[in-house]
Each structure stands twice: as structure tokens, then as C-alpha cells.
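Final paragraph of the annual report: two paired records, presented back to back.
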Amino acid sequence: MVPTLSMTKAMPLGDMVFIIVAFLTLMVILKHVAYGPLTKALDARADKINNDLDSAQKANEDAAKLAAQREQELAEGKDQASQVISAAKKSAKDQSEALLKTANDQALSLRKAAENDADQLKTEALTSAKKDVADLSVTIASKLIQKNLSADDQRSLIDAYLADLDQQ
């Protein structure tokens, strides 16, 4: 038969106390030599990880703020661009209206000048026609009555006749 634990002899009490004291001493030495620095290293590692997570979160928040600021600046840029375009359109419209007004004013002044010229030509033509009619009348009258009237007398007679026609 195979010897078992219950079959073996019990350990003497002195050995048992020595083993317990040696085990406890070993545990105290391990705590100071191995577990203390190991715990400190693990705590330092945990602190570094927490600090890295905090700085990553802060960097993420800063990036989000910067992105929001860039979006706002982009929107403001678009607004300014639309305002510039609107102002340019308004300026072009105003200039176009001013040019049209100037062109219309020039056309009106040219028309008035043409009307004045036409009136002047009409007046000159009437005056010339009166003179020609007066001269012709003097010639006809002198041939009819065989008498020479002065040209000034005939002209005054014709002017009076024409003035009478103008009143009618």
C-alpha cells in the first residue's frame, strides 16, 4: 500500500513553528523588497494612464472647440462673401441706372437741340420764303401796274398780309 497523508507521521511542533516563522519572515521581506516596489510601479503606471487619458480627453475637447471655431469662421466668411457679392450687385445696378439716366438725359438734350435746330431752320425758311414772296410780289406788282414801288414798301405790305394770315 501507498503511504498517504493520514498515514504519515505528524510533524513535530518545533518544526511547525519554525516553518510558520520562516514563512511570515519571508512574507515581510517579500512585502518590503518585491511587493512594495511592484505596487509603487503599478500605482505609477495607473497614474500615468489616468494622466494620459485626461490629456487625451482635454486634447479632444480642444480639437472640438477648434473645429467649432473654424466652422463659425467659415460661416462668417460665407456671410462676408455673400455681403460682398450683394454689395457688388447693388453697385453694378446703381452704376447701370446712373448710366441709363445719363444716356436718357443726353438723348433728351440732343432731342431738344434737334427741335431747336428744326425750329430755327423753320424760322429761317419762313423768313427766306417771306423775302422771296416779297421780292416776287414786287416784281409781279411792278409789272402789273408798271410802276416801281420801293422794295421796303412792298415788304411792309407783304409782312402785314402774312401777319394777317398768321392770326387766322
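The closing record of the year follows.
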Amino acid sequence: MIDSKGYRPNVGIILCNDEGRVFWAKRKGANSWQFPQGGIDGDEDPETAMYRELWEETGLRAEHVQLLGRTRYWLRYKLPERYIRKNSTPLCIGQKQIWFILRLNTDESMVRFDCGHKQEFDSWKWVEYWYPLKDVVYFKRRVYRKAMDELGALLIANDVGVNAESYLSGRLEAC
């Protein structure tokens, strides 16, 4: 599914633990790290797609996480010219994403990478909240920043059971 402007609808997932650290996953067979993400199928709304992608990429189910929030609007990024498949129709020039922030509420040993039709990741680690901005591939940095700015505020809300120290200390370093 590609929209009329050439963007593929997608969801992104920021999964945090009780310390406000985030799940950072290594792409299988590469030295490339990212948040879980994936396309929205034609019969799905963004939340349904998010839970499907969460299961396929991390082995976690809805009962393993607490949904803290989502971005209000689509966030877009363009692919660099060399990644655009010129021979595909319709032409996909990038992704438009709804981002979700989740809190893990089960043991991290529940994470597994063999649930989807194609394994996306082969390793993961908890990192400080803003660390991904320094490590993600360059063309995704702006959309990561927008999602993390908007959703990170939820980690410091009084009703969210997460220690936001990681978020607050990392924020100062990232600016």
C-alpha cells in the first residue's frame, strides 16, 4: 500500500522499561540498529498493525505491554535516492508512520525473534532514551527525533509507572 504521494503507511514502536530505557534492536545479519517498525496492511488500523508488528518482531503480545500513547499525526521520512526501487509501481519514496510508546510489563525473557514470517532482528539491548538518535541510520533521525520528543513527554507524566530519570538526563545531553 503506497499513498498518492509515494509514502508507505507504517508504524514505529518505542518500547520502554520501568527505568525509562528503550528497546534497541539489531537488524539480522547487519550492524544496523533501530526500533521495531513495519507496514500497515490494507485491512488494519495503526494500532492493530502495531500489535501485529510487535508480535512478529519481538514475540511480545498486547498483554506483555502497556500502551502509553501514540503520535497525533503521521511522521514522514524520505528514502535516500539509492534505496528507492525505481522499477516498482507505485513508486515508494518513503514512509509515513504513526509511532507508539509502550511499557514492558512482563519479564524481558519473553522477547524472541522467531515469530514473524521473516526474522528482522538477531539481538537487542536496553539503551538510554536518547541514544537511538545517535545510532539510527541518518535518514531516519529526524522522524525519530519528532516521535521521541512527542512521546517522551508521557514518560514524565505522574500517572505513568516509569522512572523518567533516563529520559530527563538523556534529554540534556541530546540538545
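The chain has a mean pLDDT of 91. This concludes the annual technical report; the extension proposal builds directly on these records.
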